[in-house]
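Quick illustration, no need to memorize.
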Amino acid sequence: IRAWHNPELRRKATSIAVVDESNKAKYLFDATPDMREQLYDLQRVAPDDNYVLGGVFLKHGHIGHYTGLMHFGREAVGASGVPVYAMPRMHEFLSNNGPWDQLVRLGNIELRALQDGEPNHVSPKVSVTSFTVPHRDEYTETVGYRIDGPDKSAVFIPDIDKWEMWSTDILEIVRSVDYALVDATFFRDGELGGRDMSKIKHPFVSESMALFASLKKEERARVIFIHMNHTNPLLIDGSPEQAEVERLGFRYAREGMRLDL
């Protein structure tokens, strides 16, 4: 409610980008409803005159993660051949359902296939590997991404069901990378008044911090909580929840945060 009255408090839907300076390319992860503004923010860092948009990597078929593709269409920028990386079910969904199939037919986007666990060497210095994670998969699968740069690596998991529902050990994932950007949709149970949050299976930040407590201090510093719902107090500067995260040695994402790869 505070953000309705104060535009400076408003936040965009979660998206990240990789800027490959050596190859003058940039890559967007998720095509959110706020993609126009996010592409403008990216343009200010990596201008279109110098950096080509080498691709958009999609996570899954929920509205906050792919509907920004509409801005590439005939009614908007009328783009030509923007590479869009998608897993098999996402590929099929975009190819066979309007209005997204029009983007494919008109050549606004060029779909490129991803396979679970298969690295994509998008440039000599950047590799992107998708992997499936459990989530509400009504129309498409849900994936996370491992991004390997020339010097460091990151994992991007903004949406997942409870950690124990995944066959992969998230602690081992954290230990294997330099940055772990993980689901922080909700901070704790009861955050959504009047709704049964057991039916919304995101791991609460409070649960994740308890699980990650066994990590060494330097490993906990790799954890960056991301993808906060508007109800999450981590969005409020100076909140006790921000202080708790920092006190326990973790981090939380902010718009415009930059990490070296």
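The chain has a mean pLDDT of 93.
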